[in-house]
Amino acid sequence: MNQELKTAYHSLSSSEHEHLRQEFANSPKALLLIGFLEEHKGTGFSNQQVIPHIYGNDESSFETLRNRYFKLRKNLLESITKLKQPVSAGQWSRFPEEQLELYQIKLQIKEEGQYGMARQKLEPLVKKMWQENLFEILPDAIQNLMYCRQVLGEYHHNSTLFEQWELAVELQRDVNQVRLLSTKALNEFHHGGFPKVMEVMQLLKRLTLKRKEYPRFAIAYHLSHVLNGAATMGNKLGALTRHIKQFEQLRQQYPNMPGLNYESNHLWTERFRYLYAKGLYNYMKDDIRGFYKHQTEAYQLTQRIPELRGARSEGMFYNKLRTEVLLGLYHEAQETARQMQAFQKEHKLVANVWKTLLELGRIYVYSYPKVQPENLKAFVDTLERNLQHATQAMNESDRGEAFGVVAILRFYNRDYKIALKVYERVETIAYFESMGIGFFHEVFQLPFSTQNPQLLAKEIKKKTNQNENLIWRNLMGRALSMIDMYTAG
């Protein structure tokens, strides 16, 4: 069972690890066991190793501690198993737990007249809403509690409840204003750039300071900075790093409190948006692996949770696929391309089929000959034909890149004349020049020139060693591969 637990734990993604820690936030022993699983080296561990780590100086007999550990292990393993199972549509309630409970209590009041029982349920529920800052439904809960008290003839000692009701209405208004400002900030970016975003975020900051005794406002403020800063790529990295750190600290301190939105499974929805933004943040830092890690975890959530599937987009597939190509994960990229084709078919995006073909072409550009279509010529013919029909949907730079893919694949297939002709399109040459790789022209001309392939390869290798950019180095590698293929005949 220890081996099973360790294997199960390490099969989780980092977002699932975080969810597990949040679930057991109030169980110190469970957190110690999780810490042990993270730190322990080797394939397995014994009870004699783990029990002292969890129970320390507890003087109970070893048999007693072992039984406690077995129960703890069972609970943790069950939670991990649930995390790995896809969430069915039935498990995704249309309402958050507290809102559903409030609705059921209101039915108890209106249809059954159970005022005393309703009051007993409402009092702890209102307390929980204050603790978790559930301001969207707090005024309604207090109103129903007041109504029950009055029907039961309890008119004394209600002044405090009236004051709470008034404050709850103000907080409800303010939390709605937070959502409005956060959404407006992104909209302003398209009118006045990032300075306009910051004007709106200053209003949000003032509101957060006004309500500093309620942590939810701070959570929403820092989350808004992360989401908007990453989406617009306008925030300074240092500032974005600070907001990420503050948000993660608050989220650890208040694991169940809503951020921007209070809705069913709001923590999963927030986690998806945060992972996507964190991926963009890593991209801004030129951390391609970090970008891929977070984007992949965000995508995995859309596979597990039905109501997040609507968050999928072609852009998500493009980002994932292109990053897999950059990292040399060509088989994974092929699978992502297949998923993108299924997505386009499901959403009747027939006009965008050329995009998937182009992405597959990029995969073959970087992976050939290890990964290639069954018939390279047939594939390139289909790709070029689709691109010819889609030229109006692309700007000049995109056309240059797209036909650059065609040219390289034609070269792979030893159609040297056609490859050179495609490369010499005005927009293709312009694109390669803009990327600082205009020497590809010399590679395409090799079959028709007297230039020494080895000297050209040597010159390209020298340029490669002078540049650490991953995209640039991958392109250099392709140029060298083309020279090797031509030389090999």
What is the straight-line distance between the termini? 58 Å
- Fraction of residues in H or I helices: over 70%
Number of helices: 24
Number of strands: 0
Set out the fold topology.
Blueprint: H1 2-10, H2 14-23, H3 28-39, H4 47-55, H5 62-84, H6 97-112, H7 115-132, H8 138-151, H9 159-192, H10 194-210, H11 215-232, H12 237-253, H13 266-284, H14 288-304, H15 314-326, H16 330-346, H17 353-367, H18 376-390, H19 396-412, H20 416-423, H21 426-434, H22 440-445, H23 453-465, H24 470-488
Question: How would you sum up this structure, described in words?
Answer:
- 30% of the residues are buried.
- 75% of the residues lie in helices and 0% in strands.
- Residues 87-92 have low confidence and may be disordered.
- The protein is mainly alpha-helical.
- The protein has helices at residues 2-10, 14-23, 28-39, 47-55, 62-84, 97-112, 115-132, 138-151, 159-192, 194-210, 215-232, 237-253, 266-284, 288-304, 314-326, 330-346, 353-367, 376-390, 396-412, 416-423, 426-434, 440-445, 453-465, 470-488.
- Among the domains are: 2-85, no CATH class; 97-171, no CATH class.
- It has 24 helices and no strands.
- The radius of gyration is 29 Å and the shape is elongated.
